[in-house]
Amino acid sequence: IRHGESTANEKHVWTGQSDYDLSTKGIAELESIKSRYKYPQAELSFSSPLVRCVHSFRILYEREPDILVPQLMECKLGELEGMPYSDISADPAYISWIMDPERPLPGGESFRQFSSRATSAFVRLIGIAMRRKVSSAVVMVHGDVMRAILHRFASSAIPHRAWNVPNGCVYVCE
After folding, report:
1. Summary mean pLDDT of the chain
2. d(CA 164, CA 143)
3. Using H for helix, E for strand and C for coil, what is the string for 100-165?
4. CB–CB of 146/165 below 8 Å?
5. Cα 47 from Cα 55, distance rounded (Å)
6. CB within 10 Å: which end of the chain, N or C, has fewer?
């Protein structure tokens, strides 16, 4: 599940690992979705420790997530965190990062580092669920974390950026 709209999403800034809470609109949207649809129930829950994920989990499940997983945090964007989307496309560091997935952002991580971290964490969560002998788990994460997991485990034929993951969306993996 992707977290609800954050105050950074609302302001159209690149969030990364900066710890923004949900926006008023994001809270209302999650409450609205929850009133119309049933989010997946699970025996075990995991979440990024960033407040926008934990708060979203609390709204949807009315409790705290069972396990906070720092490796599920969004991509570390370094110096570009907090920059408006409109300013990023012309930024030389951003352009270099997009053109070369091995190149880390200044003060951040490379796309490959991020993707490897997120997908390795997902594998670890599956292992935890299996060791605990649970048949279902829910994971509250960020948009690019979801995209990395979906690209790696659902279909690598679909490019990372092509996965549609709006705020509050759910993908069910079996």
Report:
1. 94
2. 9
3. CCCCCCCCCCCHHHHHHHHHHHHHHHHHHHHHCCCCCEEEEECHHHHHHHHHHHCCCCCCHHHCCC
4. yes
5. 10
6. C
* pLDDT, position 101: 79
**CA atoms lying within 13 Å on the CB side of residue 148:** 23
Map tokens 């509250």 to a residue. 140
Coil, strand or helix at 171 = coil
Residue 157, CA atoms < 13 Å, CB-side half-sphere = 1
List the structure tokens of 172: 């069910």
Please tell me the distance from the alpha carbon of residue 2 to that of residue 130, in angstroms, as a whole number.
Answer: 23
- pLDDT per position as a tens digit, 21-68: 999 999 999 999 999 999 999 999 999 999 999 999 999 999 999 999
DSSP string of 37-63, one letter each residue: SPPPP-SEEEE-SSHHHHHHHHHHHSS
Encode pLDDT of 72-113 as tens digits: 999 999 999 999 988 887 888 888 888 887 889 899 999 899
Q: State residue 69's pLDDT score.
A: 98
What are residue 133's phi and psi, to 5 degrees?
60, 40
* Residue 105 near residue 138, CB atoms below 8 Å: no
Q: What is the pLDDT of residue 10?
A: 94
The Cα 157–Cα 74 span in angstroms is: 22
